[in-house]
Design brief:
Blueprint lengths: L2 E6 L5 H10 L3 E6 L2 H10 L4 E8 L3 E2 L1 H9 L3 E9 L3 E4 L10 E4 L1 H6 L1 H5 L5 E4 L3 H11 L4 E5 L1 H6 L3 E4 L9 E8 L13 E7 L6 H11 L3 E9 L7 E8 L3 H14 L2 E8 L5
């Protein structure tokens, strides 16, 4: 049975590239124009797995996606780091001076702010997806309009690349989660060396410090910590953390202690660390 992979955006998007690299070319792609649609399609079984951007090295975390993963009980079965190379693209025959408007995903626009300081005649407009804008320019033959997307989108939709690598920081990269609704991530136990956890603590002095001490004592390497408000409990926060580890025994010890210490504790995923 062919895997159906949900992506945010259309073919040619960065999500599409991650899906092909992670799962291989022999897949079907379920195109979703929002992360909410992506989550719903995964829950309904329209797609078997999904690719979801979670953070960028320049723009930071995509905070609502943590809530989606938690609230819909999705399983993180893997991660993927993709170097981001933004290109400015338009119809053949167009030059940068011809461009009046540039549409792209808000994260892409944010990552290319410095480039457009030198092109103040261009209006930047937020849109749902990088590659979908490229497709729209081709379908509607839009003149004076450009997209920010990866070079793959320019190739798929036959657009001319006006400028390459326009992101402000050239080492820009985005981290993606591989998601599904299965309890078992499918990763071999001996390959698991990273986990994403969520916990809520009592609102008292030193509670977070105590948890961090437990992770340190159990030889966990904390690679990420993100707080989100608990919606129905004003001024109370949930913490989402990523840890890497060398020993499954130490990891199991840490999680068993955290389960006792936290008022709420959940393992969001256990998978293989892809960050060397």
């Amino acid at each position: 049975m062919k895997q159906i992979i949900g992506i945010q955006g259309v073919k040619g998007s960065y999500h599409h590239r991650v899906a092909l690299t992670y799962f291989g070319n022999d897949i079907e792609v379920n195109e979703c124009m929002s992360f909410q649609e992506l989550v719903y399609n995964l829950e309904k079984g329209i797609c078997t797995d999904a690719v979801m951007a979670i953070e960028n090295s320049i723009a930071g975390s995509i905070i609502p996606n943590y809530a989606y993963i938690d609230e819909h009980d999705l399983t993180i079965s893997g991660e993927f780091y993709l170097p981001i190379h933004h290109c400015l693209m338009a119809l053949e025959g167009q030059a940068i001076l011809d461009i009046k408007e540039v549409y792209s995903h808000p994260m892409a626009l944010l990552q290319c702010k410095e480039f457009f300081r030198a092109h103040s005649h261009i209006k930047l407009i937020e849109d749902a997806d990088t590659a979908e804008v490229a497709k729209r320019i081709t379908d509607k033959k839009l003149l004076g309009v450009a997209a920010i997307a990866g070079k793959t989108a320019a190739d798929i939709y036959s657009l001319n690349v006006l400028a390459e690598d326009i992101q402000t920081i050239k080492t820009n990269s985005t981290r993606f989660f591989i998601l599904n609704t299965r309890n078992d991530s499918g990763v071999k136990k001996e390959e698991v060396n990273k986990a994403s956890l969520k916990f809520v603590l009592d609102h008292k002095r030193g509670s977070l410090a105590a948890v961090l001490n437990v992770l340190s004592d159990c030889r966990m390497n904390l690679t990420k910590i993100q707080s989100l408000p608990v919606i129905d409990k004003p001024w109370k926060y949930a913490f989402f953390v990523d840890v890497t580890f060398d020993s499954s025994i130490n990891y199991e010890k840490a999680t068993s202690i955290l389960e006792i210490m936290a008022t709420e504790f959940k393992i969001l995923g256990e998978y293989k660390n892809q960050k060397g």
